Amino acid sequence: MSTMTFSRAINAGLRKAMDDDPKVLLMGEDIGKLGGVFRITDGLQKDFGPQRVLDTPLAESAILGTAVGLAYRGYRPVCEIQFDGFIYPAFDQIVAQVAKLHYRTQGKVRMPITIRVPFGGGIGSPEHHSESPEAYFTHTSGLRVISVSNPQDAYSMIRQAIACDDPVLYFEPKRRYHTKGEVNENQDLDQMPSMESAQVVAPGTDVTLVAYGPLVQTAREAAMAAADEGISIEVIDLRSLAPIDFAPLEASVRRTGRLVITHEAAQSGGLGAEIAASITERCFSYLEAAPVRVTGFDVPYPASKLEKHHLPDLDRILDGVDRALGRPNSLSGLEG
Amino acid sequence: MIQLVTATGTRVSHPEFDRWLEDIDAERLCALYEDMVVIRRIDTEATHLQRQGELALWPPLLGQEAAQIGSGRALRSDDFVFSSYRENGVAYCRGVDLTDLLRVWRGNVSSGWDPFEINMATPQIIIGAQTLHATGYALGIQNDGADAAAITYFGDGAVSQGDVSEALVFAASFQVPVIFFCQNNHWAISEPVGLQSRVPIADRAPGFGIPALRVDGNDVLAVLAATRIALDRARTGGGPTFIEAVTYRMGPHTTADDPTRYRDANELEDWAAKDPITRMEALLTHEGLFTPELQAGVAAKADAVAKEMRAGCIGLPEPEPMDVFNNVYSTPNSQLERQRDHYSRYLATLAGAEGSN
Ligand SMILES: Cc1ncc(C[n+]2csc(CCOP(=O)(O)OP(=O)(O)O)c2C)c(N)n1
Ligand SMILES: [Mg+2]
């Protein structure tokens, strides 16, 4: 075990994956000498050389498109998208090629491509630097989508993503890059919990609160605050957004009867909608209240001075918990 | 524009290109002719199969035989092809199974062959996307220290796509062994090439730092020589080459298209006079090679191939309903497995209902 920051943990995971498999290579903008704008790839070009850590020309579709060709040739490219809001030029290659090639070729061609996306807000940035585009990709069959919330998962799950024979989008909560945690670097891939499993990170009995990425920490803080008022919240870190590991969610909701989901992304058509619908289908008779979503608004990501209103925080989450519990809340008295 | 055989079949010498054709003796010349006739026959047979309702769609390559055979026959088996949907002539050169060629157009599968068996990716429908795949593959070849090359085929319409420009940038920056083979067949569905580019398409490549060759795409020898030059450059560390093969799409865009709505019949007549196969026949006649035996042999081969392909097409088994769920991922996926399970239960209830009638 060693203590390291979130960003160090990703770096260490990348390094381990590159040590283990010479076919792993990194590609992206400014990831070489600079080590990436967030320094996630710091030192890797120096140690592995420019053939394995490629500074690419500035073209996201080409980063993904050439990664496809490299995968045909037997490589395992790890592509860095500099910021969430810059993934859209690559959208076509991701959705029309990366996601579909295995199906198109009846399993003949594998796409073991990892796409790292620093995502989410809370860092006071201008437009295009704080987005949460995960639902575009969870809606796309053929992709696996994960999001990490702590240094241990950051380390383990980047290694699992790279080892996976399917394409994986790995969403990194950039506002948590500097948080520290214990990381065990001495686990084999098969000893780690599957990257597709959801995990209960704080047990509770009254309400199930589902979060992922940056909001797991906020959800845990909300659970601690609620405990002071005698409300017991079970926090589940979703970890895998596609596919969703529903079993622990179902088990939890069968006990609590109440469900709150929180994410930074806009509400409509988001992960919260999928989880609410699925849990309603699967656990209808156990639910004692309608599922509640606490999310970003259906607005383009706002200016940094406004982002505190947009982002779910501890108090908004607790307001949602109150709604799920039928306690007085901001919407009390409103129908529907 | 480089031309080694005139439209009337006269061989003209070329100081630089001729030496790339020294091995093309009478036998090889006849083989190129045979390839072109056979692929035209495959193409017409497939069009008939579509008209007869056996194929859902077919993209004819009529008129582009020299461009596809000349380049396809220049390749080595360890080179890798990333093409669009129209390069059935190239697939033939790679040795594709004839039934595999049609599988996708019949609607049985999303793509018909194993790319690693013939070192050719299956048809790409997203215009221009495959140019990036070839560039990435070539980057892999370079990393491996191999002397193979990647070649990508695309049309005149594709050159307007951002992906093609991005591929040219990446290929030039990394100096990878890739060939950009543009078949300028003058049309992108209904849009004439002039709408895509105000200058000859080949003129764009030098702006990216990539040498370009503009060849008569209906002249199989010019295409073969140009592709060999580009391959040699790629194999010897000289980086990418852009080839514009100037040709003409004599048929519709696909069997679903009606070109009379947008193009002048005279234009087709002009190009019919430059038909790559009649040109080859004229050349063979000049060389005293266009004998009745050759003609009979080629016709017999074309007939046999067409017959085999038709039988393979019609004999294709229908896909199984549950195939729809297969191979989305390389390992099981819990959410999809649930949908598979629910659908199989649903199908079982239908079977049960049928049984009770
Ligand atoms: C990204 C994208 N946009 C539009 C289409 C529809 N489309 C199919 S073929 C075609 C024309 C392509 O022309 P060209 O590149 O010249 O190739 P050709 O068909 O002549 O071989 C178009 C617009 C497509 N397949 N992909
Ligand atoms: Mg065209």
TrEMBL record, chain A:
Keywords: Oxidoreductase, Thiamine pyrophosphate. Its cofactor is thiamine diphosphate. One of its GO terms (molecular function) is oxidoreductase activity. It comes from the Bacteria. Residues 4-179 form the Transketolase-like pyrimidine-binding domain. The keyword Chloroplast does not apply. Gene3D superfamilies: 3.40.50.920, 3.40.50.970. Coiled coil: none annotated. The keyword DNA-binding does not apply. CDD domains: TPP_PYR_E1-PDHc-beta_like. This is Alpha-ketoacid dehydrogenase subunit beta.
Automatic annotation (TrEMBL), chain B:
It comes from the Bacteria. CDD domains: TPP_E1_PDC_ADC_BCADC (cd02000). This is Pyruvate dehydrogenase (Acetyl-transferring) E1 component subunit alpha. The gene is pdhA. Its cofactor is thiamine diphosphate. It comes from Arthrobacter terrae. Keywords: Oxidoreductase, Pyruvate, Thiamine pyrophosphate. GO terms for biological process: branched-chain amino acid catabolic process. One of its GO terms (molecular function) is magnesium ion binding. SUPFAM superfamilies: Thiamin diphosphate-binding fold (THDP-binding) (SSF52518). Residues 36-304 form the Dehydrogenase E1 component domain.
